[in-house]
Amino acid sequence: MSAVAVENLAARARYELQCLGYPQRPWLAPTTFAGEHVHDVVIVGGGQSGVAIAFGLLREQVTDVVILDRNPIDREGPWSNFARMQTLRTPKSVVGPELGIPSLSARAWYEANFGAQAWEELDKIPRDRWCDYLKWLRQTIGVTVRNDTEVLDIEPLKEDGFALALRDAKSGRNLPRLLARKIVLATGIEGSGHWHIPPVVAAALPRDCYARTADRIDFSALAGKRVAVLGAGASAFDNAAVALEQGAASVDMIVRRPQIPAVNPNRWIEFAGFLRHFGDLSDAMKWRFMATLFRMNQPPPQDSFDRCARFAGFHIHLGAPLTRIEHDGRQIALTTPKGTIAADFLIVGTGLAVDLDARPELRRVAPAIARWKDRYTPPAGERNDTLSEYPYLSESFQFTEREPGAAPYLRHLYCYTFGAMPSHANSAGISQLKFGVARVVSGITRDLFVASAETYLESLRNYDERELVRTTPPGDGRTNQGRMASASNSVS
Fold first, then answer.
1. Together in a domain, 309 and 185
2. Of residues 82, 81, 46, 90, the one with CA closest to residue 67
3. Where are the beta strands (DSSP E) in 401-454?
4. Does residue 344 share a domain with residue 203?
5. What is the DSSP letter of 344?
6. What is the rounded end-to-end Cα distance, in angstroms, of the chain?
7. Could you tell me the pTM of the whole model?
8. What is the mean pLDDT of residues 217-223?
9. Is the N or C terminus of the chain more exposed, i.e. has fewer CB atoms within 10 Å?
10. Nearest 5 degrees, angle CA 215-CA 221-CA 227?
11. What is the pLDDT of residue 474?
C-alpha cells in the first residue's frame, strides 16, 4: 500500500469538495423543544447508507446531523458483521457512496493503494477492501458515527419532531434521549422486519442447535460436525463455504426449489433510467416489476457456488422442501420428500420477512404506517401477499399514513431499508445509493425549508447588508448617477 498516495488522494478529494462548496452557508436555525436542543436530522444506522445520506446532507449545508449505530466502531453495516462472501456481488465499477466525487470513488482509492494495473486485473472488489474503503471515505469527508448506541423507541412529539430513547449497547444502561426534527432509518436489509425462521425450525430445535445466516456463528466449533443449510441463496452458500473451510465434516444444502436460479435480475436493474426513475412509475407498474423480480429470485454468484463445490462433503438436495424436524438430544433429523438428512447443526438461510410490527423501535408508530395493501389492490391473478406487507413510501422515502390525517408526523420519518424495494426499487444496497440518497436528501431539505418559509421571508424583508458602499468614482465629485446623466445629455 502507498500511504503517501492515499493521503494525497484524500487531500485532493477535500479540495474538490471545497471547489463545490458554494454557497458555504448553513441555513437552518437551531431548534428547541421544552428547552432541549432538537437536531435537524438523526440517522439510525452508520453503515454505507447512513454515511452516504449524512454526506449528502452536509453537502446541502445541513450540518446538525447525528448518526447512531448499535455496533462498535468499525463494525457498522453488514460487511464487518455477517457478510461472509469473499468479494462484493456487484461489479467493481459500482458507484454510490462517493456521491459523484471522482477522488472519493472506490476505484481512485484502490488505485492509490495498489496501483492502476491492480485495478485493471481486479475482477470484483474483495469484501475486506470494501470495508477499508468505507472507513477511509468516512474519515476523508469528516462524517462521525456515535457507536454502541441502540435506539429503543421513537416517540412522536407534538411539535413536529421525535424523541429517541437510547441505550448503551455495551453496558445496557439507558442514555439521555435525543430529539430530532427528521429521522432516517438506514438500518440495513433487515431494518423493516427480521430474518425469517420457519416455524417448524423454531418449534423443534433448541436455540443452540441452529443459527441464521446473519448471526455470529462460531464456525470453528463446527469442525468435524455435520452441518445442514436450509436455503440456496447467496448467503446460504457463503455460510456453507465458511463451514466447510473451517473443517465441517459435511454440508447438506436443503433446497425447496427444483432448480437453483441461474439468471440474476438484480444485474438487469442496474441502469440509471430504472434506478433513478422507478419511483416515478404508477403503482400498477411498480407492482408488476416487483412481482416479476421477486418471482425470478436470484442465484448465488458463481464464485460462491464454486467455493462450496470444491469440497467432496458438499451436497445439494433440490426439490426437497422441509416437512419435519426432530431432535433427540444428540442429532437433528430433517425430513424432506427426498429422504431424511442427519445433522449436528442447522444454518437457516430462508431470507427475511418485512414486518414493521416486529421492529421494537417502531412499536409506537407501526400501526399508523400504510402498507402496500392499504394503497393498492392488484388485479386478479397478480396478488402477492409478500409485496402487500411492504411499507408504502412517499417519493422521498417517507412513511405514509394508513389513515389520512391520523399520523402527520410520519412525513418526518424516512425508511431507507430493504422495505423501500416496492416503492423505489431500493434494497439499501450499493448500486442504489447514487439515486436513493439524492431523493432522501432532497426530500429532507425541501421540507426543512418549506416549514420555515415565513421565517425566511421575514429575514429577507429585514436584510440590509450593503453590497454597494461607494457611489462616487475616485477623483470625481459627481455621483455615478450624475455621470450617467451627463453621458445621456451628450448623446442627445
1. no
2. 46
3. 413-415
4. yes
5. S
6. 75
7. 0.93
8. 97
9. C
10. 75
11. 78
Yes or no: say if 308 and 238 are a contact pair by the CB < 8 Å rule: no
Segment 233-267, tens digit of pLDDT: 999 999 999 999 999 999 999 999 999 999 999 99
Same domain, 86 and 201: no
Residues 291-314 have pLDDT tens digits of 999 999 889 999 999 999 999 999
Pairing between β-strand 36-44 and β-strand 65-68 as defined by DSSP bridges: parallel
CATH of the domain at 246: 3.50.50.60
pLDDT digits (tens, 9 = 90+) for 365-382: 999 999 999 999 999 999
Q: Within its chain, how far is the Cα of 76 from the centroid?
A: 11
Q: Are 229 and 253 in contact (CB under 8 A)?
A: yes
Res. 462: pLDDT tops 60: yes
Q: Is the bond preceding 473 in cis, omega lying within 30 degrees of 0?
A: no
486 has a pLDDT exceeding 60: no
Q: Which three cell numbers stand for residue 40?
A: 435537524
Measured between alpha carbons, how far is 156 from 160 in angstroms, rounded to an integer? 8
| 71 and 140 within one domain | yes
23 lies in some domain: yes
Half-sphere exposure of 436 (CA within 13 A, CB side): 35
Pair 107, 114: CB distance under 8 Å: no
Identify the pLDDT of residue 1: 61
Residues 143, 170 share a domain: yes
Query: Domain range for residue 130?
Result: 3-192+353-451
Which amino acid is residue 289, in one-letter code?
Answer: F
pLDDT at site 491: 45
Q: Is 20 strand, coil or helix?
A: coil
CB-based burial label for 84 (10 Å; 0-12, 13-18, 19+): buried
d(CA 80, CA 187): 14
To 10 degrees, the CA torsion angle through 9, 133, 434, 151?
-130
Domain count, the chain: 2
- What is the 3 state secondary structure string of 228-244? EEECCCHHHHHHHHHHH
Using pLDDT thresholds of 50, 70 and 90, give the confidence band for residue 477.
low
Q: 235 to each of 177, 240, 296, how far by Cα in Å?
A: 36, 8, 17
